[in-house]
Specification:
Layout lengths: L12 H16 L4 H18 L3 H12 L11 H4 L3 H18 L2 H7 L7 H19 L11 H4 L2 H6 L4 H5 L3 H5 L9
Helix pairs in contact: 1-5, 2-5, 3-5, 5-7
């Protein structure tokens, strides 16, 4: 905020709940909190800007509609890049993802394993997506599964930071293995 105006969000209980969860996560995972905060912010911001997650976009648009109108554009271009309203609207999902990406158990699962094969990568990617979908309470985060857009998804890149799965995925059928049976078309 700019110090002159603070948005009132008491009418959005999910924001208050998220703030309490954020504090618990900070106490529980102090060693990974800084890196995880950057990663969770990147995930949410990427989904917001790319508009590839319709279930989340619907929630975020609903919250935005409940906030006061956007303030005048700042003269400083750096201030213009971050819309506080968008940050507020995406905050509950940010906190939800933060709880996952700060957890050392999930960080260990996604850590690159030197000798992992494609099958192991697929299981890891599927497990991370399944967990994130459950935590966020969305039917799927696997939009555009058979396209380059899926492999460019922020959660996919977080899960496979070295991009080794992409080297092994050569046909559209290879993407089928990245999809859990419960998410088949």
């Amino acid at each position: 905020m700019d110090g002159k105006r603070h948005y009132r969000v008491g009418h959005l209980p999910e924001l208050v709940t998220a703030e309490h969860r954020h504090r618990r996560i900070a106490r529980r995972f102090p060693d990974t909190l800084e890196a995880a905060t950057k990663e969770a912010q990147h995930l949410v911001r990427s989904w917001l800007l790319n508009k590839n997650q319709p279930h989340l976009l619907s929630r975020w648009n609903d919250r935005l509609a409940q906030l006061p109108p956007k303030e005048a554009i700042y003269g400083n271009i750096i201030r213009r890049r971050v819309d506080e309203r968008e940050y507020i609207a995406t905050y509950p999902e940010f906190v939800t993802l933060l709880g996952m990406v700060a957890d050392p158990a999930w960080r260990a699962i996604r850590a690159p394993r030197r000798w992992a094969n494609l099958s192991q990568h697929r299981r890891t990617i599927n497990a991370v997506y399944t967990e994130a979908e459950q935590r966020l309470n969305v039917p799927t985060l696997r939009e555009k599964l058979r396209s380059h857009a899926f492999s460019n998804d922020a959660l996919f890149r977080w899960t496979d930071s070295l991009g080794r799965s992409l080297m092994l995925v050569t046909t559209p059928d290879d993407y089928d293995a990245l999809q859990d049976e419960s998410h088949e078309n």
